[in-house]
Amino acid sequence: MKSQKSHSKMYLEIVSELRNLIQEENIKTGGKLPSERVLAERMQVGRSTIREALRSLELLGLIETRRGEGTFLADFQQNQFVDVLSGFILQQPTSIHDVRKTREIHEVAAIQAICRQPALQQQPVWNSFLMKIEQNMRIKRIHLVREMIVATGNRLSLKIWMLLTQYSQVPYSEEMTIDEQGIVKDFLTALVAGDEKQALHNYFSWTERVEGERGEE
Amino acid sequence: MKSQKSHSKMYLEIVSELRNLIQEENIKTGGKLPSERVLAERMQVGRSTIREALRSLELLGLIETRRGEGTFLADFQQNQFVDVLSGFILQQPTSIHDVRKTREIHEVAAIQAICRQPALQQQPVWNSFLMKIEQNMRIKRIHLVREMIVATGNRLSLKIWMLLTQYSQVPYSEEMTIDEQGIVKDFLTALVAGDEKQALHNYFSWTERVEGERGEE
DNA sequence: ATGCAGGAGTGGTCAGACCACTTGCGTGTA
DNA sequence: TACACGCAAGTGGTCTGACCACTCCTGCAT
User: What is the pLDDT of residues B9-26, one digit of tens each?
Assistant: First the structure.
């Protein structure tokens, strides 16, 4: 585990480890996680690394930390559903394929929603993305997709999507080729025009290019 | 600033400070932020606190860190996502409307998946539902929809859908009218035939009838 | 039995130290 | 002069140990 420092970020590895731990120890929603110091020792990493992992989980609402008490799997107070779902995603061993497919479900739904609502097509954000492409600036898939889901106004969908994104760790920072720029440009053009069929076609082309067949990981 | 130890989390304060700094220094998209050590000194906090703030911004995709080079600003400016962020972090309660819409997303995705895969259309379960209608037996919407999502083979989608269903408590156990039977029958027929457009149309008719007003799109 | 004080445990934060990596400058060589 | 190499500085990534503030619980004194 410590040998993997070369590739992915350590704190993301820890997130994975935490998921296993929660499952193995069968920690229920609202249950208490081991303390940061115990986690650090058990996973053979420094406490600060543990904290960075916990911080990201906290931001997503997956856990709740209470000073002097401990760290808990998301509680039921408000926002019940997401907390339950969070615990669910953290606890269940889920196949990478299902995660990807489910993420895709939400992304496709956002595209369809935008293509069917002119008000969403007219938002300035799409032109801003188009302009960036004209200027040869890199666009990250995750940023564009996120804006699309934000545009739909469905915060729950956004939250689920973000959870899944973090889970599957799609390769972010690939360089964008000329071909890819063309695809994204066509995609955005179709999106703004409300051409659902064309938009989806371009979306899948882009997805395939970015994520490729590297589903094994 | 250091006096704000009282309630809000420090690293969230830092996030706020960072936004000010970016604005004041007029750092453009893709531009470089001061190093962690400089930020720590300038904001009078420890480097680890800075890192926790940066880590959460990185998770949200607002910055990008490259080892040995520095921390760079992603697109912060006119992104709508930033506006949503506050509510996101504050764990606003999820609206019933969002729950319903999200559930619909998964249901529609299942219908589309089935209509595009003949293998799924040929499963005997659909005919068994049709036969029950012929025999005037009640079909609960929840049962049929669940079978559809099961058929897609995406267990994660199924889990999410079940949570949403449990949460939103749609009135499922209504008696089925003659009209409704017709709609469901048409729906299943279209589904088995792979007629996506017709299936969705019937699905929405059914949903509207069972749940009341249908989402405008 | 009740109330209080203190210890143990926990998250929050800081400081300093390495390591791994990138960059760029300068030096030495062909 | 031109090129290649190597070293130093700067940066993010991580670890360690320390202290603080807070919560909880236990045991002692009343």
Answer: 787 788 888 888 988 888
- pLDDT tens profile B166-191: 776 655 555 666 777 888 999 999 99
Structure tokens at B189: 């027929």
Tally of domains in chain B: 2
In A11-70, the residues whose Cβ lies within 8 Å of chain B are 11, 48, 51-52, 55-56, 59-61
Predicted TM-score (pTM) of this structure: 0.81
Chosen for mutation from B75, B83, B168 (greatest number of chain A CBs closer than 10 Å) is B75
Closest CA to B180 of B143, B205, B212: B205
Give the pair of three-digit tokens for residue A130: 């188009």
CB pair distance less than 8 Å for B80 and A142 = no
Share of chain A above pLDDT 70, in %: 79
Please check whether residues B72 and B161 belong to one and the same domain: no
Q: Do B156 and A95 touch (CB under 8 A)?
A: yes
Q: Which of B11, B79, B84, B94 to substitute to test the interface with A, most A CBs within 10 Å?
A: B94
Segment B86-108 mean pLDDT? 79
Segments forming the whole domain that contains residue A6: 2-91
Residue A9 placed within a domain:
yes
Residues A105 and A200 in one domain: yes
Picking from B89, B121, B147, the residue at the C-terminal end of a domain is B89
CB distance A151 to B83 below 8 Å: no
**DSSP reduced 3-state for A72:** strand
| Domain match, A117 and A176 both | yes
Shared-domain flag, residues A82 and A159: no
Question: Of A11, A61, A101, which has the smallest distance from its Cβ to B55's Cβ?
Answer: A11
> Is B70 a domain residue?
yes
B109: nearest CB among A82, A109, A147: A109
Q: Cα separation of A64 and A150, whole Å? A: 25
* Cβ atoms of residues A191 and A130 within 8 Å: no
Confidence at A90, pLDDT banded by 50, 70, 90: low
pLDDT at residue A173 is higher than 70: no
Residues of A in contact with B59 (CB under 8 A): 56, 59-60, 166
Domain endpoint, select from B57, B89, B121: B89
How far is Cα A6 from Cα A15, in angstroms, rounded to an integer?
17
Domain identity same for A130 and A184? yes
Residues B62 and B104 in one domain: no
Residue B67 CA to nucleotide C25 C1', Å? 21
